[in-house]
Amino acid sequence: MKHIFENLKKYWYFVILILALLVVQAYCDLSLPDYTSNIIDVGIVNGGVEHQMPELITENSYNSLKLFLNEQETKDWDNAYEFSKSDKAYKLKNTDKDNMEELDSEFGNVIAVYYMMSSQQDSQFKNMSGNAQQMTPEQQQEMAKKLQEFGVDPQSPTLMYDLRKVFEKKLSSLGDSTISSYAKSFAKSEYKACGKDLDKLQTDYMFKTGAKMISMTLLMVIAAILVGFFASKTAAGVGRDLREKIFTKVMSFSNADLDKFSTASLITRSTNDVQQIQMVSVILLRMVLYAPILAIGGIINVVNYSSGMEWTIVLAVAVVVCIIGVLMVVAMPKFNMMQKLVDKVNLISREILTGLSVIRAFSREKKEEERFEEANGNLTRVMLFTNRAMSFMMPALMFVMNGVSVLIIWVAAKKIDQGVMEVGTMTAFITYSMMIIMGFLMLTMVSIMLPRAAVAANRIDEVLKTEITIKDSHNALTEKTNNAVVKFDHVDFKYADGEENVLEDIDFEAKPGQTVAIIGSTGSGKSTLAKLIPRFFDVTNGKITLDGVDIRDISIETLRSQIGYVPQTGILFSGDINSNISYGAPGIDEAGIKEAAQIAQATEFIEDKPDKFESAIAQGGTNVSGGQKQRLS
Q: How confident is the model at residue 339 (pLDDT cuts 50, 70, 90)?
């Protein structure tokens, strides 16, 4: 994991930008359920009336409500309203959202009590707030009995306030949702009494809220697109940098360093392993950063609703974690095996393709097919196992999510029936629950993918941190030699993993103009001796000098620029004959190329080709013979 994050350090500015965009996306995503809840509860149920405190109130209701207030509340009530001659009613001075919410909190209950009392069928209760003095003695006596039943003294100077407290106790058992609904119904009745168009009020609210939802959705889409763009750009940059680092490092490896890794393994590390890091980098930036933001935001919103159903989310998250935990225990070891099996398939494929002529010569096609089938079958079985395990995850998690939705609806239905929750609140709670579960789900899914990426990162890091055994000395010479006298001075050599010397006490001198042939049986070390001169390996004991200077004191670039090396197996690159002959001397002119071809006795077969020196050479020189390949090399 540490290695993966280290690759992102270079792109810290993109990471910060992506994080900011994810916050914007999460804010929009988390706002939509609230708007949906408002459309249901405010727009549909309450006819577009958002607040319990009416913005317009008739003079009669204004004065009647004051009878239910204490001294401080009466002052606040009078300060909140002013009489509007045009509306012929009292109008709120400040309709800011914060002020309205503050007034709702202060006067919501008393408005609900007043509305409930004024809706009573009994004319005595209905009129007592304004017409108590006009009652007959019999009506007053009946009213006194009813007040005594409620525990209110009919002679109390604060009769209406005392009655309010009695009704508030009764209302409290109905729940906040019902109380708010009573107060908003009062506001609607006042708007109607003041001549306000209730249908227009509802339509305006629905359009306003819908416009906000569309704006939030568009902003969320733009943020998501930008996150995807910058995450992909960052991950592509990480992949490019890793491939460049691996290639540069491998190019600096000596033969001894290359022997630590197979060619197939280095190819896999440069391609498949880098691709794993690149893919996980995108997921880290898009999902891992987004999941906690979404989950935490969802939790905060759920807590703010105070619905009492938070335990359903805890239960769902626990079940999701258990399912993912079981899958990780089962599938994790297989992920660790997968990259090694990919190496094996690459190795066998490469051997078969490069050795195809030998395979055909010995009629070993069937045997090689069986060898490839075995490696491919092993990889297929592991991948099928992991994919089947992962395919079980989605239906199981969908079952959990849908089960939680049913559980929330079942619990919420009782609360709605009791009047402590509204339908829109339940809808928003379900949506937030899904967001929270999805947040944890994204994190757990990434935790399954990370092990494979971690294996890939470690394999790449193994290449990048390999200590190069053959490198320039501190003050390496960069001047080219004049005489090129090569001398082996009592040279011993053994391979890093060998127990005995391959070469021992080699002592000779090769002068300019001489031809020196090293003769020996197969495996006697002839090729190894030749590889010591360009420092593909360094001697174990003794030294090799060039004009009396130890070749370890000459820069590798200077040393190798003075050596022409033709391996036993000639290597040609895709291009043409010109590009291959000039490979070691890019600035050579046409005359130099022809001279080199003549020295290598390659002119004859080159001139026989239709395009001569412009004749195409296939990768590996497969379209020329072995002898022609060596002469061109």
A: low
